[in-house]
Structure formats: structure tokens, C-alpha cells
Design brief:
The chain is of the alpha/beta class. It has one domain: 3-Layer(aba) Sandwich (Rossmann fold), CATH 3.40.50.720.
């Protein structure tokens, strides 16, 4: 895959910041991917949950033991930098 494929045709997406609150960006992303038939792997990320919408939920991107092509960060602005630093050390290809 070329570098743009990881962004436009990701095979695996981690979504940081999922929540039971349907208004949260992370939750909306996962539900939109599921609703629209995304065929790749979806890795919801939030240390407070074991599952999200039937998918295993991970405590951090670093806990995902598979390659991730794209990370979507759906957390409040004050947590974005900290979240980015954590994911940057993970196995994500799109960093």
C-alpha cells in the first residue's frame, strides 16, 4: 500500500474516545463505520469499556496487537496532545 492508501483505504482503524454517549465523536465514527458497511477491522479505544457496540474495546492504541492503518482521535481538545503522543509510539502506520 502507498502512504495515501492508509488514509483513504485503511484496512484497520482504531477509534480513540468511544463512549456510551452517542454525541461523542469517537462513538459517532464507530457507529458510522458499522452502519455504512466498512469491511476492515475496527478497534474502539477507551480504558473504561471492555466492549463497544459488540466490538472488543482496548485501553489504548498500544494495546492493539494488530497493525493499525489509521487512528481517529475523538477526545476533548485538552486530551488530544497526550493521546497523540501515546499513539505515536504504537504500531500505527498513519502516524
Amino acid at each position: 500500500m502507498n502512504k495515501f492508501s492508509y488514509l483513504f483505504e485503511p484496512r484497520a482503524i482504531a477509534v480513540v474516545g468511544v463512549s456510551d454517549d452517542v454525541a461523542r465523536p469517537g462513538s459517532q465514527v464507530v457507529r458510522a463505520l458499522l452502519k455504512n458497511g466498512y469491511r476492515g477491522k475496527i478497534f474502539p479505544v477507551n480504558p473504561k469499556y471492555e466492549q463497544f457496540d459488540g466490538l472488543k474495546c482496548y485501553g489504548s492504541v498500544a494495546d492493539i496487537d494488530e497493525e493499525v492503518d489509521l487512528v481517529v482521535i475523538g477526545v476533548p481538545a485538552r486530551a488530544c496532545c497526550r493521546c497523540w503522543k501515546r499513539q505515536h509510539r504504537s504500531a500505527c502506520r498513519s502516524r
